[in-house]
């Protein structure tokens, strides 16, 4: 059986001179702490510090990168132990699910998932043979045994991973109990929340009605009036800031913004709250609310993240049987230049406002996003996102944004993951790709070596702290 | 005069370490048989085994890659011996046409045509000097003499090229006489057809009326009713399968699909058959028929190929004088995510269905196609097509699809050509580019060497056999 | 303080073998004269030959590449000495502005501006330390002293830069007095104009009314009738040709063309001249005028340049305070295939017509522009433009156009700049990137070394002379 080895030069350019430069840059940041300002880990893990059960439950069943690929090759979600809509687990034995996964591991060749998981297998669990049918049980046993030990509890791993800050993401209808519990526990891990109010802003969200009720209760505001609804957002933003939040996040299909008069807002909101908004009005309401969120960010200093462009739940059958986030979200062409104009007309020239733009449509890097971020004081570029959070995707991001927006209008790396164990792997990949990109610029004499040294530290820890308003350690 | 040399390392990366890996991978597949599941060679060549006449008739006049470039630089099609609309040959002497071509050969520097033709010149005809004005006659004479010999008849070259399978493409109104003749001849070459019913599905196709008459006659069905029309397709699909077809092919401007009720289908078809369908209805009919073809593929197991996005016959003057396929087809932006949804709602989760998507719009690789193919069991990605069937185009294809869809949701190489002599050259280019891509992943420690060895065989012969339902030799 | 060094291998690929090839190619064109057929330098400089004042006035305040980046990071335009709307200078001391710039110089790491300016600092002014806060005054003093000397007057630098031809760009309402003065002066520098009639074609241009009055006066035609308006264009084109112009230039949001009847043109023009054209009619008028310009080019032989796709003055506040060209132009998705069709239907097959297409939407390179230019005799591809006039942008341009359109449907380099001192730097970057691209093709055995040698001369001086109808020196 082939050995599993993480090569120390992995992801660096093959040219020897360039690789040597990349190595030297990497040495400057290899041990830097992990700052994770945007992600989807479960705060309950850190609140309860309960052990995870097994490899399938921890690594496979929650990871839509994994089961989407397996599903595309005819493996059913039931066979992988993926919960059904409502949360019911299939009858599949977790070990059998893991064996199925192992038998299809070759499908991930050349994908970031393979790189991340091999890092987890080798570095976190110390496994030294590759995954396949013959090693599946060995993996399952080694991982299971490790997870039962104190050293693999969430908080222990958090410390081991050298995480300076980890942001989770909660909805506006979340009571933040887990974050309160973390703080009450006395544990020193820096876990913060992020305000993601999509489900109380998007009238077409499947949880809109339910979450508006909770939103009202948690905020203590009358959310049936426009003024009260805005006040509820302000209240909840403050609640989130009390749990460490420095950022909000917004994920609609388009980044459209609007600038309606107060009377128009009130009339539109009345339709929304009355359940009478049609599709165009729902879109307009989301657009207006992006502008309102920007306005509140100017007031309270929270960094605003916009993640548009995903056609959610494209597979209707699968959505009916298994619900959201099952690998069936497909990007779509996204337009920013006209979409953002109403908001930029109002706040575009405010240096105090920080809006981070993300995209699933790489064509916008050179055409729209880098030119926008290279001009407007309030705009910054988020890192290569989701499908593009990969070696080639990150490389394209740098190649297509740097010449117009520079490095300093970017914000470092986001792991954006719920796969906690893969966080070090993901940050490591990003650091290596940045080192390789900078090394090429140095090798081509487009950048001095000392400039690259400066930049790799900025890309790893400096920019993210400034973009997300995080404290800079002494 | 400079020598013409095919360097053994051509198309491999220049970095010595990476090149060494590429060489080792190439050695595994350099001699592999050619499997050509999608192309446009003329089955009459293999039915009659008649000799080709001369270089102009064989290599120049039918190759729109060549004369489009010459035309763009002011050379008339008449001067190149290209037939006019209706088939009349211009008065140009074939040797004079060849001399004109030779005098402009420098225009092809850096293009795949140069690479393919140099391969043909050197490997098939053994010529060892470069083409230019001074060598034009030498070329013309050497090629002409060769073509007159038995070793350069179509069947002899087919054997020499080590072709395991060659698929041609015929319309639904084709009687398949050449394919029958091939089978009746006792020759063992494996030449199969492909069902391409565009001209009886697209009401706006210039041959629609004519071909519907033949379609009716060949199928023996009443194609004036919706039920009879569908039955005729089923009948003809069976006819094609009897001539070896394992696939269908569909080339409309958009990949739009539809899911109409039976009553809606009948009403729409009545308009189409009555010549009363407007542009929107013609588009809707094509959309519905893509869905019907998918449904039939589920029944009869034929692989479905969708080739959208070409604005055909963009040059109106040239279309009037010279007809179709004269280098004036221009790609257009293509949308897949909403276009395919109606069909995917019906059949997207069927692992038994095989739909291969192609594109001329490379922006869809990372944004739409890789995410779709990395999720839906029925979808696979066709190789870089047409303008993108080139070293840079293939490299972009791998760089932009692998991380999201993996290698295993792709289907190997298609030469897609009517230029029979260039088939070995084209497959060789594809193999070399894949070797170079895999070599880079190995050199960057993103893939183990044994994985790359496995993959290059899959990319060359494994995936294509599975995607097109071809037998795997013992 | 780090030294500023221009490495002789800068911008060449890092692989030693490829770099050696690039070096050898570069040696063939490093000393070639500069041919600049499209740019925005001020002809008054060469007419008056007056000295420039200081570093801020010469290098910083007019360069929107520089202040857009600084502005994006919160530096005000006032602090940089950028004039306000109407031309009033802010109170900022030029030396203070330069210090502010120097303190932010790190923002340009990895951008073409850094490369261009370092070239200017080192080569033009002989400065050997890098720019930062501590060297700001040294820079300001050295540059100021140099500018006061005769060797740094515009004409002296023109000669020192080895410029064979420099085209400026003037509007249809320009009296060309500076060009006349240059000719009257007896100076031998070859400075020519370019006919850019946007402000008298686009009814939505803010100077339309004012410039139509001047256009009428300068042409002596009755521009209130369609026939007179066209005659005025013919008259002014002749005026421009008398000042050396061989080209026209057109920069609308879209490349849309139209082919209206004479009666339709007259009716549309009546609305335009009457101030009654709505947005759609204004767009249609611009479209028709592109076709008219092509028709006139067929008559008078002027090369036609189309620069579409910029959303001008996206930042409304900044436009109000500072006017046009302040770094707030943002590209937009651009469609060519249908947009150009009406004009191509008329003139597409004319080999005597030369239309050069530019784009800010790189997705069109492979999808639309290379296929169009690789077919239509009248079409050529302009070089990577504006945001894409950069090492990565130029590399993508070659990688994405060469395989379909070849090298010979491109037109060499445009510096497109008003930053006169950076012209040698910009041409040098383009030559180096082309050398690197050709070197890769040679290293990968896709091109013979003698073909690359031929091509680098074509890309540097041959193609530009032919595309712009310039004389070829003996």
TrEMBL record, chains A, B, C:
Q: Which Pfam families match?
A: UxaC
Domain of life where this protein originates: Bacteria
| Gene3D superfamilies from the UniProt entry | Metal-dependent hydrolases (3.20.20.140), uronate isomerase, domain 2, chain A (1.10.2020.10)
Query: Which InterPro entries does the UniProt entry name for this protein?
Result: Metal_Hydrolase (IPR032466), Uronate_isomerase (IPR003766)
* Entry keyword annotation includes Transport: no
Q: What's its EC?
A: 5.3.1.12
Q: Which reaction(s) does its UniProt entry say it catalyses?
A: D-glucuronate = D-fructuronate; aldehydo-D-galacturonate = keto-D-tagaturonate
| Pathway entry | Carbohydrate metabolism; pentose and glucuronate interconversion
Q: GO MF terms on file?
A: glucuronate isomerase activity
UniProt enzyme class: isomerase
- UniProt keyword terms in alphabetical order: Isomerase
Q: Which NCBIfam families match?
A: PRK02925.1 (NF002794)
Q: What is this protein called?
A: Uronate isomerase
- Write down the species: Novosphingobium capsulatum
């Amino acid at each position: 059986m082939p050995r599993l080895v993480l090569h120390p030069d992995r992801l660096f350019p093959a040219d020897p001179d360039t690789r040597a430069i990349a190595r030297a840059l990497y040495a400057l940041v290899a041990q830097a702490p992990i700052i994770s300002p945007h992600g989807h880990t479960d705060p309950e893990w850190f609140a309860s510090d309960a052990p995870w059960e097994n490899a399938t439950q921890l690594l496979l069943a929650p990871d839509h990168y994994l089961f989407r690929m397996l599903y595309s090759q005819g493996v059913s979600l039931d066979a992988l132990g993926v919960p059904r809509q409502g949360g019911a687990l299939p009858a599949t034995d977790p070990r059998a699910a893991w064996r199925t996964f192992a038998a299809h591991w070759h499908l991930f060749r050349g994908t970031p998932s393979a790189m991340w998981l091999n890092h987890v297998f080798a570095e976190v669990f110390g496994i030294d043979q590759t995954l396949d049918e013959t090693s599946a049980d060995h993996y399952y046993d080694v991982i299971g045994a490790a997870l039962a030990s104190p050293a693999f509890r969430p908080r222990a791993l958090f410390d081991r991973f050298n995480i300076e800050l980890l942001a989770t993401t909660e909805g506006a209808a979340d009571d933040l109990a887990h974050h309160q519990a973390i703080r009450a526990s006395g544990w020193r891990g820096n876990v913060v929340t992020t305000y993601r109010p999509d489900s109380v802003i998007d009238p077409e969200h499947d949880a809109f009605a339910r979450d508006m009720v909770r939103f009202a209760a948690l905020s203590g505001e009358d959310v049936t009036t426009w003024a009260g609804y805005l006040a509820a957002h302000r209240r909840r933003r403050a609640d989130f800031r009390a749990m460490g939040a420095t950022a909000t996040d917004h994920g609609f299909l388009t980044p459209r913004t609007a600038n309606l008069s107060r009377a128009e807002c009130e009339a539109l909101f009345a339709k929304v709250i009355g359940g009478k908004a049609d599709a165009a009005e729902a879109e307009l309401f989301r657009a207006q609310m992006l502008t309102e969120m920007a306005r509140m960010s100017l007031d309270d200093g929270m960094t605003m993240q916009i993640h548009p462009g995903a056609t959610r739940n494209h597979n209707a059958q699968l959505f009916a049987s298994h619900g959201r986030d099952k690998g069936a979200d497909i990007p779509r062409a996204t337009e920013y230049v006209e979409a953002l104009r109403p908001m930029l007309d109002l706040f575009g020239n405010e240096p105090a406002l920080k809006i981070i733009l993300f995209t699933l449509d790489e064509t916008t890097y050179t055409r729209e996003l880098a030119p926008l971020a290279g001009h407007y004081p309030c705009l910054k570029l988020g890192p290569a996102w989701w499908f593009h959070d990969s070696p080639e995707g990150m490389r394209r991001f740098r190649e297509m944004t740097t010449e117009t927006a520079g490095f300093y209008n970017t914000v470092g790396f986001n792991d954006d993951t719920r796969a906690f164990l893969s966080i070090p792997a993901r940050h490591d990949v990003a650091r290596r790709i940045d080192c390789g990109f900078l090394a090429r610029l140095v090798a081509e004499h487009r950048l001095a070596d000392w400039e690259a040294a400066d930049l790799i530290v900025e890309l790893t820890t400096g920019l993210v702290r400034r973009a997300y308003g995080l404290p800079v350690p002494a």
